[in-house]
Amino acid sequence: VQAGGMTKSYILRYRVHGRLTQFTLGRDPVLSPAEARKEAIQKLGEVHAGNDPLKAKKNAANVLSVKDAAKRFREEHIETKVKPKTRTEYTRQMDKTVLPALGHLPITAVTHEDVAKLHHKLRETPITANRVMALLSKFFNQVEKWGLRPRNSNPCSDIEKLKELGRDRFLSKEEIGRLGETMLEAERIKLVSP
Q1: Residue 194, preceding bond cis, omega within 30 degrees?
Q2: Phi, psi of 172 (to 5 degrees)
Q3: What are the residues whose beta carbons fall under 8 Å from the beta carbon of 62, sequence distance 6 or more?
Q4: Cβ atoms of residues 90 and 138 within 8 Å
Q5: Residue 24 DSSP SS3
Q6: pTM for the model
Q7: Which residues contact 2 (CB under 8 A, 6 or more apart)?
Q8: pLDDT at 8
């Protein structure tokens, strides 16, 4: 325990490869003495197993979140390499569906199960579910190219598309007018029987 002014910090000192290192476990009163002791025992177990808890903590701090990687994907891919209509759709899917579900996760921690759960959650709208999976697959392929995930680790692989039912579409007034004109012309030249 180190006291500085009014706050106390719980510090674990240990050696890794002969070098003295210290790891801050937490501060009082956020961490009680019993919790600090328990945490210290766990960290010493990691040291005994040959791991450096401080190095692991620094590595974890350097990992981008899905939200951070999505910002880069938007700037370097969506805004520059896709058509305007697709850009609008990708942006909407990212903001409305992907980021609320996965944005908080470290990019390296997203699993096949995480993506499959999101796909399943969207099953009532199969077209949307499949479009979101297509976007996520492109996103994770790009993340791999940037070196933020290992190659061939795309969590979207092996997720089967949902069956998409046809959508009803009604003709616009202009289309109805053109259809009527075409039918009249076809009748005039005897292409269709009355």
Answers
A1: no
A2: -80, 170
A3: none
A4: no
A5: strand
A6: 0.57
A7: 8, 9, 11
A8: 81
Q: Could you read off the pLDDT of 16-60 as tens digits, one per residue? A: 888 898 888 888 777 788 888 998 999 898 888 888 888 777 766
Tell me if 138 sits within 8 A of 93, measured CB to CB. Answer: no
Enumerate long-range contacts of 145-149, CB under 8 Å, 24 or more apart: 146/69, 146/72, 148/64, 148/69, 148/107, 148/108, 149/107, 149/108
pLDDT computed for residue 115 by the predictor: 95
AA identity, residue 44: L
Burial class (CB in 10 A: 0-12, 13-18, 19+), 48: exposed
Instruction: Please tell me whether residue 144 adopts helix, strand or coil conformation.
Output: helix
Dist CA 73 CA 98 (whole Å): 13
User: How far apart are alpha carbons 51 and 108 in whole angstroms?
Assistant: 20
For 87, other C-beta atoms within 10 Å of its C-beta total: 16
Which amino acid makes up residue 101? A
Question: Tokens 């069956």 map to which residue?
Answer: 163
Per-residue pLDDT, 193 = 54
What pLDDT is recorded for position 27?
Answer: 80
Quick check: helix, strand or coil at residue 106?
A: strand
**C-alpha R_g of the chain:** 28
Residues of the chain predicted below pLDDT 70? 1-7, 59-62, 166-168, 191-194
Give the per-residue pLDDT at 166. Answer: 66
